[in-house]
Amino acid sequence: MSNTKSLLTIKDLHASVEEKQIIKGLDLNIKPGEVHAIMGPNGAGKSTLGYVLSGRDGYTVDSGSVTLDGEDLLEMETEDRARAGLFLAFQYPVEIPGVSNLEFLKASVDAQRQARGEDAITSADFLKEAKAACKQVNLPVAFLKRGVNEGFSGGEKKRNELMQMLLLKPKLCILDETDSGLDIDALQVVAEGVNSQRSADRSFIVVTHYQRLLDYIKPDFVHVLSDGKIVKSGDASLALELEAQGYAWLQKEPAEDELEG
Amino acid sequence: MTEQIDKALAREYEAGFVSDVESETFEPGLDENVIRRISEMKGEPEWMLEWRLSAFREWLEMEEPEWALVDYPKIDFQSISYYSAPKSMKDKPKSLDEVDPELLRTYEKLGIPLIEQQMLAGIAVDAVFDSVSVVTTFREKLEEAGVIFCPISEALHKYPDLVKKYIGSVVPKKDNYYAALNCAVFTDGSFVYIPKGTRCPMELSTYFRINEQNTGQFERTLIIADEGSHVSYLEGCTAPQRDENQLHAAVVELVAMDNAEIKYSTVQNWYPGDENGKGGIYNFVTKRGICHTNAKISWTQVETGSSVTWKYPSCILKGDNSVGEFYSVALTRGRQQADTGTKMIHIGKNTKSTIISKGISAGRSNNSYRGLVRMNPGAEGARNFTQCDSLLIGDQCGAHTFPYVESRNPSAIIEHEATTSKVSDEQMFLCRQRGLDPEKAVSMIVNGFCKEVFKELPMEFAVEAGKLLEISLEGSVG
Ligand SMILES: Nc1ncnc2c1ncn2[C@@H]1O[C@H](COP(=O)(O)OP(=O)(O)O)[C@@H](O)[C@H]1O
Ligand SMILES: [Mg+2]
């Protein structure tokens, strides 16, 4: 263990949605620059974890603590968490009709810079950056003018999430199944986007079902989330094991049929 | 979230100040004598007085309409004053230097400087304060192009034939209860005439301000675009914040001759009343235009103010190939009630109309779209497209759509689309996750919803309208 300070520290987190406990005692420690993959069966609570960390209304923390850069994350408003550098790429990005991607991104960047006491970026400079980001995620520049996710295909929505990440330059990126539903080319675009952003002061939580993404994004750690808890952690090789064997062997009371084969 | 957004909607009304000007105001009350006095103050020709009196007699026989989805106590027409004008206006100032500085300051505070050097280039303004027009700017420049832009009271003296020919030609005296009342007691408003083949060199605009207490404002606007001419006209309005309701009953008539085009835009920001529905303007307005052959009339409105709005800017598509358009954003919050929409009457062949209505309801408000599309037997090949979208903010407000379709020509095509959506938790979460505060998030989502209408507004107004929505949605959504 190096003595670098931790970026994100989750201790014994319990959280629920609509009175139903979903996260049931979760611990996780992420240092700057690390990439953590979280895998696990459907309904394990992976998306819920992302929502709880980013402060979505309706997701209640029952106990435990979370700090980001030593600050109590759970005390902060949703937008303040974003401004502190937390970014969530959504599993199912929502549309905002009539609000152009560019307008939305500029407003987001402006709000974050302002909160951090930085100078506003000029429209011209921003446009340049935005165009470059489009190129990087392989979206035509015309997408900047279209409504946020309005009529985008599944893959375009995912790439659009990634573009937002490139422009917002967060400290902690949570990618919630950004690879789902992507063909191999798009998958590579996502992986390259992430790899290009890897740096000593940026960490990732990559939620995925598939080993194939992890062929491109080499994680430092792999965790298995099952029934609201991390049931196993390991290095990149754990993902390969999961690929071969599925999750069933990790679950406490595996269902009969899942044990076969 | 509902509660938080409601809080955000409780905001200051920036135009709510009262100007300290000495006014000459009639005693409250309405009878033939009051009408005679109004006519006399304005030095009107005899026919005008007779016209007013006959309208008044019609009005006495009429019933206040109750079909709209609005609820307000019966208006006591005897408790309203029907004329109020700043004393300083009595001697009809010849130039800006002679205008009471307090009046000029009022408009400046409202963002409408009347001193030519400070004015927005390219917009001529007629400033109406209570019952009189204070200033009309850029008149010489317009005269060079042959364009007439003056208070209607002045037009009655200078161009009586034009006024006589067209007043009441689009909205008949007894068209409806409030229109009849307006005919009887209207005090001022704007008159526009664009000569044949002329493209009006600037945007024309009238800014209405109600200042005096217990006074009604009854303005009358008449715009005539002669053959092949073109004009874009803007209308804005505000009033002080007062506890009593005030009545505003205007009539606007547009005449687009063959091949002419009139674009009429409104940003309506009358005082909407407080949180609990106390005070605010009753906005009962009749707006209608007639299109002759190949002519086009386009109404664009952004309605954010008034406690009760009752308003249906309409087009009579009389000439073949004429075009009518209606683009509307109506935002209601608090206890505001709006019943607004349009009527498209297709008479000529191949006439076309487009209706885009965006209703946004928040708080405990009620927002209704009411629209009529009529295809007359002669309207061969006529087409209408209607799109009505409602956006709900919170769950205590109401949105309603009342489309009426009357087609008496089988070749006519009528399309209607309607949607209702909410500012969703997911959209709010996405915005906040990207670092936007909740107020900014709401106003951005609402602005996006209105985009199709805003793009129809002249540039300066589009910015203004966007800002107005932003202010309307300002607060602390937490
Ligand atoms: N809004 C909600 N209301 C009720 N239950 C929910 C809600 N959101 C998620 N859940 C439940 O929480 C559990 C975890 O869901 P989720 O975090 O989406 O899992 P994953 O992303 O790992 O597939 C599931 O059982 C799901 O049904
Ligand atoms: Mg999920």
Automatic annotation (TrEMBL), chain B:
SUF system FeS cluster assembly SufBD core domain mapped to chain residues: 208-449
Signal peptide: none
Source organism, top-level taxon: Bacteria
SUPFAM superfamilies the UniProt entry points to: Stabilizer of iron transporter SufD
Gene Ontology BP annotations: iron-sulfur cluster assembly
Domain SUF system FeS cluster assembly SufBD N-terminal: 143-199
Pfam families the UniProt entry points to: SUFBD_core, SufBD_N
Family: Belongs to the iron-sulfur cluster assembly SufBD family.
UniProt-listed NCBIfam families: PRK11814.1 (NF008773), sufB (TIGR01980)
The name this protein goes by in its record: Iron-regulated ABC transporter membrane component SufB
Organism: Marinomonas polaris DSM 16579
